């Protein structure tokens, strides 16, 4: 869990600016280059990292749930079939399952992160809690979403998020398991 969390913190250094531009381009029907220019003009480099902390606050619980659940489901499957490991296709299924569960449980964090990333760019929206600390801003954003739209607002977009992340979990974690298994076989073959 610690390794996954550290990996997410580093990956977000690249992922967040891309997310900021993508989400603003989608939300405001603008070209990505226009969004980049306007963001740099309004907020400079800091604007590209708007939502960095909230992204990490989404990614760490997501990674902790996904990776620990993936390992546990693989162990359970291996135990059930009375082996010590699972096949790569089985790891794909476990990855899809764990990704889907993690995606669903962390959807409210994703909704809050998106709202925070869009703040300051859209001058028509109130930014009453923009200057508060990151955890306070995050909690306030979740609270406001819940007050305005209820549980449906907190889980907005849950279905496509779960579908895409379950596919990604199958590909990424299944691919990892396939490479890991192939390398082990390769090493064992060449040691003989």
List keywords for this structure.
elongated; Mitochondrial carrier fold; single chain; 192 residues; transmembrane helix
Overview of the molecule:
This protein is mainly α and 192 residues long. The chain has one domain: Mitochondrial carrier fold (Alpha/alpha barrel). It is 82% helix and 0% strand. It has eight helices and no strands. It has helices at residues 2-28, 32-43, 45-48, 52-80, 88-105, 107-118, 134-154, 158-191. The model has no long low-confidence stretch (mean pLDDT 88).
Task: Write a brief structural summary.
This protein is 82% helix and 0% strand. With 192 residues, it is mainly α.
- What is the name of the CATH class? Mainly Alpha
Describe the oligomeric state of these chains in a short phrase.
single chain
- The tally of beta strands, per DSSP, is 0
Q: What is the molecular shape?
A: elongated
